[in-house]
């Protein structure tokens, strides 16, 4: 999904099969965490900003699977790296 934030465009990626999450190694393997049926571990909530060359220029990760990046925090990072 493409969204505009302060004139900047971003693509939000949903990864229900955890394919991209596993490529980046963002699956929490903590045995005490809630597990998805048929899949061990949960995705670690992560926001990445990737430049036009595919380089990750900013990352925000949560240690709690129920928390996501604050939109204002991501917006500030977008403005800092791409404005």
Description:
- The chain has 83 residues and is an alpha+beta fold.
- The protein has one domain (2-82).
- The protein is 22% helix and 28% strand.
- It contains two helices and six strands.
- The protein has a two-stranded antiparallel ribbon. The chain has a two-stranded antiparallel ribbon with strand order 3-4. Strands 5-6 form a two-stranded antiparallel sheet.
- A hairpin with a 2-residue loop joins strand 1 (2-5) and strand 2.
- The chain is globular.
Summarize, please.
The chain is an alpha+beta fold. The chain contains two helices and six strands; from the N terminus they run E-E-H-E-E-E-E-H. The chain starts with a strand and ends with a helix.
Give the CA-based shape: globular
Radius of gyration: 14 Å
Care to count the β-strands?
Answer: 6
Helix content: 10-25%
Poorly predicted sequence stretches spanning 5 or more consecutive residues: none
Order of helices and strands: EEHEEEEH
Give the count of helical stretches.
2
Helix and strand content put the structural class at alpha+beta
Give the strand order, joined by hyphens, for the main sheet.
1-2
Amino-to-carboxy terminus distance: 20 Å
């Amino acid at each position: 999904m493409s969204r505009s934030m302060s004139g900047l465009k971003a693509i939000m990626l949903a990864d229900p099969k955890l394919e991209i999450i596993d490529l980046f190694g963002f699956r929490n393997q903590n045995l005490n965490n809630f597990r998805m049926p048929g899949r061990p571990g949960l995705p670690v909530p992560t926001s990445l900003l990737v430049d036009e060359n595919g380089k990750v220029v900013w990352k925000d990760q949560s240690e709690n699977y129920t928390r996501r990046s604050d939109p204002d925090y991501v917006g500030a990072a977008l403005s800092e790296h791409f404005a």
